[in-house]
Sequence to fold (558 residues):
Amino acid sequence: MKHFCVVLFILFFCRLAFAQTGQIATSPFYPEGGARPLGMGAAFVGLADDVNSLLYNPGGLAWVKGLTVSLRDSENITAGQAFPTGYGSSVGLAVVTTKLSLPSNLTTSTNSKLLLLSFGTKLNFLPQLYQDPNFQRIGVGINIKGLISETLRQQNQPDLSASGWDMDLGVIWKRTDWNTVGISLQNALPAKTLGMGEIKWDVGSAEGIPASLKIGTSAKIISDIDAPVYMEGKDLLLNGEIDFSRSNPALLRLGGEFGFNKTFFVRAGVMQQHQNGAVVSPINLGLGYRSSNWGVDLVSYHEATRNQNLAYLSFIYFPRGWVVVEKLEIEKPVVVMETPIEKISLEDNIVTYDDRIEVAGAVKPNVDIFINGLQVAVAADNNFRAVVPLEIGKNLILVEARYEEEKKSWKYKVLRKAKVEIAEEKAIQAALKKATTAAEKAELQKKESARAEEKGKVEELVTLGVIEVEPGKEFHLETGITRGELATWVVKAAGLPLPKVEEDPFPDVKRDDPLAPYIKLITQMNLMQPFADGTFRPTALVSKKEGERLFKALGIKS
Fold:
């Protein structure tokens, strides 16, 4: 990674001097497209996680596949594809057609067609690095860009045509599952290197193509999988990038994407651009939708050359038949990452009393399985089995299938209910065994049904942490709960920090009483009230009315 970065810097700063393509006010070798990247202020070099990597950072192609078409209108279209070849790499192809009428001179227009041939692979393609998992997180890539045609039209002047070739280099480092760093050196070839690195006009002149060094990072701050902050069904992605050019001031680009259920997305970004010798900082706004294998994105962005806000639309498609395969013998099966797990014993929203749950299933050949971050042994017949401990309350089991650092994840919610022994229930069951008449049995069965319903409510409260019951001890429904006990349980269940108690909260609750901080906090939150005489009475039993009011405030059905 470090050596690759050094090479990029040397190429950038040793670049031969160039002239701006002043006749057309912009370089066709700087295609910036794709409604999703533009929606995030074009700060995409440090992310590069979809087909738009072709335009921003070819290093991202190591993990990318799919087709995309983006258009501003019928004459400004970008089409591209990234096709996985196996061995952790992909090849890419893109065509960018542009027609531009310059606002400074409405009689001047330019048409260009740019072709990009790309290749991206993980750095562990080298035999000596293959077994090192660190290098499976680094992708490197190259773009060969050819200006197939460039036509400049001016009123009362003959048309001018140009062509040229150049090259981009890129690298992506997946530091963690939620953070990536990217570097891209665009138009890396010095002028006249191998006949490339410049635009040649048919009138005999030639000019260098400006180089640009882009350094960016991306962080998924919020997600329900692999992120510092957990939020169910929400994703927040933040990107930042700095663009360096030898002839212009550096540009700062910032953007973000907020997703709902991995289906709907809202994007915004600040996209600094060079405009008439100055730097402008317009705000771009975008929307996106994703299904299982296709998506659509829309953005409103600023184009510096025209000094206009324009709309851009993109379609993206992920062919299910395009799969990444391992280098296998001819008779061995192919790994299909769309369905790496053939069967699993889990289902969502399981409810159990057990303190552990067994997870078993089968995977495709050569797929590794991880449960809650720990690798599970896979037998020769591709079956696996693991035991996952459960805590009282809600548990999230994360199942990951990994193959050559490709990863698919599933999450399963499991509720472990607290099992509570009710003293009155045992007494009723003992009485039922002794009952001799049908009337006695019917009356006891009615009481047993009522106690079972009450037991369910108690177990729910214990599961939520509102009530504490020591393991192995019976709970007495008729004994009741004291006000001090209830205050303690509610505060503990909420996980609230305890306040300092510098004076007696109430006449009957001294400041050195272990219950004092809990009682002070719950009364400050207006969940429990003192009596009319100013006392709290921590040993008094909670009345039914008071309990119902508290449970209603907590959103618990009593």
